[in-house]
Amino acid sequence: MESVSETKTRCGFAAVIGAPNAGKSTLVNALVGSKVSIVTPKVQTTRMRVRGVAIRGDTQIVFVDTPGIFKPRRRLDRAMVNAAWAGAGEADAVLVMVDAPAVAAHGEGLAAQDSQSIIEGLKQSNRRAALVLNKVDGMPRADLLPLAERLNDLSVFEQVFMISALTSDRVEDVAAWTAAKMPEGPWLYPPDQAADIPMRLLAAEITREKLYLRLHDELPYATMVETEKWEERKDGSVKIDQVITVEREGQKAIVLGKGGRAVKAIGEASRKELEEMLGRRVHLFLFVKVRENWADRREHYAAIGLEYPEE
User: Fold this and answer.
1) How far apart are CA 163 and CA 26, in angstroms?
2) For the chain, where are the E strands, in sequence order?
3) Residue in 101, 129, 98 with CA at minimum distance from that of residue 116
4) Is 142 left (phi over 0), alpha (psi -120 to 50) or beta?
5) β-strand 93-99 against 238-246: which pairing, if any?
6) Do 240 and 227 meet the contact criterion of CB atoms below 8 Å apart?
7) Does the global pTM surpass 0.85?
8) Phi, psi for 160 (deg, rounded to 5)
9) First and final C-alpha spacing in the chain
């Protein structure tokens, strides 16, 4: 009989790809069991590949949350889409997420077009995947089954899941399928590590989430948050200085809000979550700067975990 010490472990990478707002980050957070990716209603919230670490039995799965795949128009768009396809190309398993109600309601709309382009991309690279139809809770079965049949290209998908990432309904089915795809090998991370992302970068992402949630439609797309300083203090607390970058003075006024109220509320929300995450007191200071066309400048891409795409 095989002893516990002789039990073979498995470990690998699973890329979660899909159109913007399909629920990829929500699914990764649910699979990992803690927050590793920010989640907002704003499309294209995820800009970089975020690795969340999940354990199922003797298997460690590194879920790679990727930016949404869509038709890029700007340099930043191209960097995000490149990051998503790179994540899929390096993975042992691929999950393609689809916002089921959006595609069912707008059969030829952007959500459907983006999903079809992803299927074509997988075909071209000869990658097999699982199709994950998300947000199915409350959808009439009469709408769901035809949608599954329409998207389930048998040359690409070997399994179809119908889930709700928000409520974690049937999420464990996805985890079990993914775990079975992982190759034998040693675990890459300690059992208690939930994410592979530098704390400075995760802190900036938390603030960007609060920024989106506070302003949402008012907020310009080309907005960036960077952690410029991280100072450990003798009393065990940490002082964090972050810069919110926008492209125009008018955008700066939106972020600041009347009398600075908006940026103060954003900072307060971010500070509270960071204190929960770090388990200690956080002194967070936010500064808003205007840098025209920052999204076209090479030096800013490494700061947000992206490779600079050449023309």
Assistant:
1) 12
2) 10-18, 50-56, 59-65, 93-99, 129-134, 157-162, 195-196, 224-232, 238-246, 282-290
3) 98
4) alpha
5) unpaired
6) yes
7) no
8) -125, 130
9) 59
**DSSP state, residue 296:** G
> pLDDT, tens digit, for every residue of 8-27?
899 999 999 888 888 998 99
Domains and CATH numbers, the chain: 4-181 (3.40.50.300), 198-304 (3.30.300.20)
pLDDT 10s digits, 69-93: 666 667 777 777 777 667 777 789 9
Residue 50 burial by CB count (10 A; 0-12/13-18/19+): exposed, middle or buried? buried
Which pair of structure tokens corresponds to residue 263? 């940026």
Count the residues in the chain: 311
- Looking at residue 298, the DSSP 8-state letter turns out to be G
Q: How far apart are CA 72 and CA 306, in angstroms?
A: 15
